[in-house]
């Protein structure tokens, strides 16, 4: 239901938003040092993330409202769901400010680096602190100070007391948030690329949430393997809603894109990806599930690091990695589809690892 609402809202609202942006001449400012083929993208409406964010928030509350009216069993709005929306929407606001400055000043750079870092840190710290609160009737909070892989491990950041645990968790949580937001932002360079990969990642977290709900320790206390996640079904709902909203957006974002998500969308999506990893207790697994984002980010780190160490030499023709293949003669569509395939393989591997751990633990 939620996924359908988000899909329809995005499909119907996006063309209206595109027309409004065109009237106001809110178009993309293309990097001067980018591939020359991207010059045609200049002026394409951006900030499509505004509609994505609106669709997700509206669909989440509408779904819970409709379930309540229908008398269907539901846990209602949960702390985990609200926390995910907080990080998702908060990062979207930071991205919106960045996009708006770019458009207003007609330049490819928006917020200053320190301004973006401070704003992102404020949202990330608020999320981390709140995630360790709001215990349910069993004392389970949305997040824990334990580092997680497929579930919480024995590595607890609160090894020297809750105060130090809180500080270390805030730092660890913000590392995950920063990595995820930068990963999606760097991947968002070709029509439909980041959108398609994000749909796969959120689809995976929808499956993980449903599985964790069905195998929750509260339902299977005697089981050898069960999951202690605060609100897995609500997280699954949000995963499905994000898939619906992004599928609707992809209709308008596929080549030739009628609109770009902008930093408004990429930072919001990255925030949601990080929130899923933290709240579903699959923090380290995110490296596999979001392997395409990791690969793109590493290409930038390698390029910049080697450039400085070698005195001006480059590993790739251009970073992020997708532009290297463009400059190597690949058509944009080929890069996008092949990166989608890689993204799907990473997601399949992550889900395989998640399920195999449960089977082995039986």
Automatic annotation (TrEMBL):
It is an enzyme of class 2 (transferase). Its cofactor is Mg(2+). The chain crosses the membrane at residues 6-22, 43-63, 75-97, 155-177, 189-211, 235-252, 259-279, 285-307, 335-355. It comes from the Bacteria. It is a multi-pass membrane protein. PROSITE patterns: MRAY_1 (PS01347), MRAY_2 (PS01348). Keywords: Cell cycle, Cell division, Cell membrane, Cell shape, Cell wall biogenesis/degradation, Magnesium, Membrane, Metal-binding, Peptidoglycan synthesis, Transferase, Transmembrane, Transmembrane helix. It is found in: Cell membrane; Membrane. Its EC number is 2.7.8.13. GO terms for molecular function: transferase activity. The keyword Metal-binding applies. PANTHER family: PHOSPHO-N-ACETYLMURAMOYL-PENTAPEPTIDE-TRANSFERASE, PHOSPHO-N-ACETYLMURAMOYL-PENTAPEPTIDE-TRANSFERASE HOMOLOG. Catalyzes the initial step of the lipid cycle reactions in the biosynthesis of the cell wall peptidoglycan: transfers peptidoglycan precursor phospho-MurNAc-pentapeptide from UDP-MurNAc-pentapeptide onto the lipid carrier undecaprenyl phosphate, yielding undecaprenyl-pyrophosphoryl-MurNAc-pentapeptide, known as lipid I. Belongs to the glycosyltransferase 4 family. MraY subfamily. This is Phospho-N-acetylmuramoyl-pentapeptide-transferase. It comes from Paeniglutamicibacter psychrophenolicus. The gene is mraY.
